[in-house]
Amino acid sequence: MTTDRLMALDLLVSVLTVAAWVSAGVAAAARRTRTAAALFAVALVASLVRVWSVLALAGAGWWFVQEKITLALPLLVVAGAVATALAGPRLLRAARRADAVSGDALRAPAVVVPLLGAGYAAAAGIVQTFLIGYPADPGTALLLLAVAAGAVLGTWRAMSTHVPGLRTATAATAVATVLGATLAFVPLSEETTAEGSAPGGAAAMGAMGSTSHAHSAAGDSGAEESASGLAGATRAVTDLRGPAAPPPGGTVRRFELTARTATVTLSSGRKVSAWTFNGQVPGPPLTAEEGDLVEVRLRNADITSGVTLHWHGYDVPSGEDGVPGLTQEAVPPGGEFVYRFVAAQTGTYWYHTHEVSDLGVRMGLYGTLVVTPKGTAATGLDLTLPVHTFGGVTVTGDRDQPLVRQAAPGTPVRLRLINTDNTPHRFTLGGTPYRLVAVDGTDLNGPGTLGRAGLRLAAGGRYDLAFTMPSGPALLRVDDRTDSVRLMPASGPPGAGEDTAAAGASATATTDPGAVPSADSPTADWPELDVTRYGTPAPTPFTSRNHFDRDFTLVLDRGFALTNGRPMYAHTVNGHAFPDIPTEVVGEGDLVRLTVVNRGRDTHPWHLHGHRVLVLSRDGRSVTGSPLWLDTFDVRPGEVWEVAFRAGNPGLWMNHCHNLSHADLGMMLHLAYAGVTTPFHGAHSG
Hints:
Number of helices: 11
Strand content: 25-35%
Radius of gyration: 29 Å
Structural class: alpha+beta
Number of strands: 34
């Protein structure tokens, strides 16, 4: 059984356990003798099943059961044992006799209160998991214990005028409440940095002030080291900028983007209010050749919240990354900012605002960036296809209707798919065999031929599909229901020929052409491609067997957390919400491993700025296909991803969920190189 299903089963059993104990208590109070006895038996069985489900879930990792084993199960076991000892014998005797006298005996507090108390204790575990979240700590444990105890005392007092030791128990409950609230909500001291001492982290974060605390993330293997390992000369993020001139042989590619509100017209004629770059959605496509210097002048006409440009997946210098409050201030109306970086990475990328980005990207502040290898001539049909939910409908580019293009049979075709939404999209291509030749801008090694395959693309991610135009139509579909691109065969000579279409795409699997589905075939039952098993293995600069200089664990969950001193039901990392999530501090040259764990019920597309990460494993299983270098990866409920990177791009970087609504609710943090400072003090606003 998968971890996700075990999590769902454990939730179901925990709810059933609460319902059974509480119902048994209510039935006893109502003198329903046999019903109470039957529900008591159900409660016992459900409690035992709950113990089993937690132990089974523990096999997926301590992260999934920490609060269950330290809090929920002890409460349930103790309360269940008390209920069994006090109420069990009376219930059994009453069930055998089943008369009015035995029914009256069931109404005694010695029967009803323990049964309801077991229900309260079981409910406390659910509250911890789904309202407070990971991890359980002494403060929240005391609060929940106090609430459960208070409920027991209140029930007992409602049923009897005499409660032995009521004043003492009430006082103890009040003390536990105050102590728990103090531990849970009052910060006792300034936390340390990722190196276990203040100097390293203070230098790393410099003048960030309240934007983020510089202290360790869970599982930091470097905590025992002294700050001297990361100490060194400081430098400002504003000094980490792109060059003024291109490398030898490169040219300067200049672009101007003006952010403004506008009404855009989709292909159907439908008009939508939008935030735009240069009055269009998506913004103008930016293209460059490897080695060029890209210079983009951003102006803000009237976006009142401000605007920046972030180059998603592109490893620009930190000062060009476009993160407001960290690498620059947001560009206000009437302001401008010039970005410069060398186009050193080839492939498919995109840009978007990072100021109030959940709203800004949804409203249209995004566009595409494609960098082609130096010296390669354009051949065939090359389509860049950003997919977005805009105005309530799925659009490809600026079209809410299928894009129809013609290509002569034999023409090489490349489809560059970009998911600019907050949630994953599923793509299918019918009518032709094809290969998935690149993921997140990086070519795959030995990609095999695909036919009936569903391609799940994470929010922010990119897939490049390559094939030779067939003699019949081909259809790209989104989410099994929206026709996105329809390619029709045209008469005339083909493009550059089959050799170009197959370049860098030698097959590891062969699909019988007769098995290739027709363009209009239903696709809902097509199996999802597992990209960790696709392609051919190849050597990588490091593996999971390497020694890692820094080792961070990020446990993703949902729960109440303090954000700028205010409680909020947040998307959390290690029990905290931005800006109170510990900063990950690294040194230049460090080999860094990130373990990302999803305890929640939402999918989290994880995105680290400024670095590609190599996937080491998913759910403990190593990658067996092509090496996967990603900048965004979907961590589904119950999944555990291990990824690694070499810290070779000094700066201050965001590390966050790219479901931007989740980031807006707290699921983002900073990764900082030691010695890098920032003069910006504004709290990043999504």
